[in-house]
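Hi,

I'm pasting everything inline rather than attaching a file, because the server keeps stripping attachments. The sequence lines come first, and each chain or strand is labelled.
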Amino acid sequence: MKRMRPIQNRPSINAVFSDVRVISSTQRARHILVTGGAGFLGSHLCERLLKAGHTVICLDNFSTGLERNIRHLRNFERFSVVKHDVVDPINIEVDEIYNLACPASPPHYQADPVQTMKTCVLGALNLLELAARTGARIFQASTSEIYGDPLVHPQVEGYWGNVNSFGPRSCYDEGKRCAETLFFDFHKKHHVEIKIVRIFNTYGPNMRPDDGRVVSNFIVQALKGQDITIYGDGSQTRSFCFVNDLIDGFQQMMATEPSFTGPVNLGNPGEFTILELAQQVIKLTGSRSKTIYNPLPTDDPRQRRPDISLAGQELGWQPKIPLAIGLEKTIHYFDRLLAEQAHELAEIA
Ligand code: NAD
Ligand code: UDP
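And the predicted assembly:
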């Protein structure tokens, strides 16, 4: 096993708590570790936590995360970045941990399945050991993939799932299931305070244009006037949550009583076929792209929709942003990003 990293990984403390006015008198500014903080969800979470007055350490190996996503956060003195792989142990003094480190897009997590499994399992183990040592509350970004190709619809937390243990999605699905097991065993054995959310398909700004997930693929294809690639006949369904709603849910989950561990579903219950999504994107971008049909990937779930009653009861959470509004914001983001990239290419030429 690699040696634990020294405490000097902790960011400089001199500027800490320099602008904590948004913290109310009943709250305390905390040192918060966000693993996967340069990724799509992690970068939004880091920004939220900084704006709430906390000190944030973004830990990332930059495998799918982008420096661009966190560039603007460097203006906060309470923000620091540690380049590190969660597969290796880390020693750092923190009050809270959000574990988001893991590629989430099927092409990315399938590119190196062994690394994905190690990230899910060893990453969870290393961070739980850190939580046990420091007494930090720890949050796990689990997934609707826990339910696999579900035989129960909509999916409730009590459903155990229908997961293939050796298909192309297994490194992720089984890795995330094993991580949940580790979280509960650390909770039972070592009294670690755990918070597990099962995230359903979420989209928004800060996704990579080459992320490979359906919303970013369709928007980028539509903006570039390329064919829109529907896998299968497009009748499979997904429920799409806008990122701002999801981050609200993360914060509300982290603020629950210690006795509430989850797992709790977070997602938007509005359910759409992939063909309907393609039609919406074409309409909202005004694109002349055509839809083309490619083979359906192995083990692609047929339908997915969260039952969010538990999140409503325990967190008082429900998503507010309808698909058309969230798509417009995401289209705007990709439009600007593609223009920036075109400008950079023109400058090089
Ligand atoms: P993402 O790929 O944009 O972000 C993942 C981040 O983790 C990246 O910054 C990446 O560089 C980093 N990372 C990957 N492996 C790492 C490792 N071994 N060590 C350190 N850093 C590592 O994906 P995302 O959509 O932001 O997903 C974030 C988390 O949420 C993931 O754990 C994912 O499983 C979970 N999740 C996301 C969704 C969704 O719809 N976005 C759905 C379900 C679950
Ligand atoms: N999909 C598609 N075209 C694409 C990318 C994805 O039709 O260019 C489909 C994919 O087969 C799946 C759905 O869209 O049925 C959601 O895929 P995504 O990779 O976004 O997430 P996940 O399958 O993990 O829910």
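The CA atoms of residues 94 and 339 lie 39 Å apart.

If the labels don't parse on your end, tell me and I'll reformat.
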